[in-house]
Amino acid sequence: MKQRTLRLALLAALTLQVAILAGVFVNGFYPLWLGKEIRLETRPVDPRDLFRGNYARLGYDFSTLPTAGFRPGDVIYLPLEQDGQVWRGQTPAHQPPEQGIYLRGRVSGSPWGGASRVTFGIEALFAPKEKALQLERELRDGAVAVVKVAPNGRAALVTVETEAVNSE
Questions:
Q1: Interstrand relation of 155-161 and 143-149 (parallel, antiparallel or unpaired)
Q2: Coil, strand or helix: which one is 130?
Q3: What's the CA gap between 160 and 168, in Å, rounded?
Q4: Burial level of 62, CB count in 10 A (0-12/13-18/19+)?
Q5: Which long-range contacts (CB under 8 A, 24 or more apart) does 49-52 make?
Q6: Which of 4, 36, 113, 161 lies in the 20 to 30 Å Cα band around 30?
Q7: Do strands 143-149 and 86-89 pair parallel, antiparallel, or not at all (unpaired)?
Q8: What is the separation of C-alpha 114 from the centre of its chain, rounded to a whole number of angstroms?
């Protein structure tokens, strides 16, 4: 009887671990599977990190916001409005909008110069060293981030387009 109880406990523990790993996997890919594809104007911030490898770090006009009403750690919801081919951020709020596309972010930086930094999970595109350096050079002339946004505001960066911006 004790062996059966031990086996059931072991099976339950193993099942729980697999379920947690599956949940992490699904949570990471959720925006890519169910999200609506949008385009956001972006600019370069920093091309490399000695510890994490080569990547193009992206910045957005809506990545900083006035400190009034927002503190580090706060979750914010940024409604988006389409402006031609790209989408632009509107006024952030503490609650998600009732309709429309929005980004869910977190105030990550402490206030400096009257503004706070907000992260949305679309700030870095990892690439091999040469591609990351080339992307950094191309980003100086402007680029468009292709992003998928899930219905709950979670976003995932798909790619960065530079040719369309540079040819206009």
A1: antiparallel
A2: helix
A3: 16
A4: buried
A5: 52/126
A6: 161
A7: unpaired
A8: 23
Query: Could you tell me how many residues make up the chain?
Result: 168
Its pTM stands at 0.71
Q: Average pLDDT by consecutive 10-residue portion of the chain (168 residues)?
A: 84 89 77 78 60 70 79 91 92 92 87 76 80 75 87 89 58
Residues whose CB is less than 8 angstroms from the CB of residue 39 and which lie 6 or more positions away in sequence, other chains included: 85, 86, 87, 144, 145, 146, 147, 161
Tell me how far apart the alpha carbons of residues 120 and 5 are, in angstroms, rounded to a whole number: 45
User: For residues 115-150, b (16+ Cβ closer than 10 Å) or e, as one string?
Assistant: ebbbebbbbbbebeeeebeebbebbeeebbbebbbb
Strands (E), the chain: 36-49, 53-59, 64-66, 75-83, 86-89, 102-107, 115-119, 124-126, 143-149, 155-161
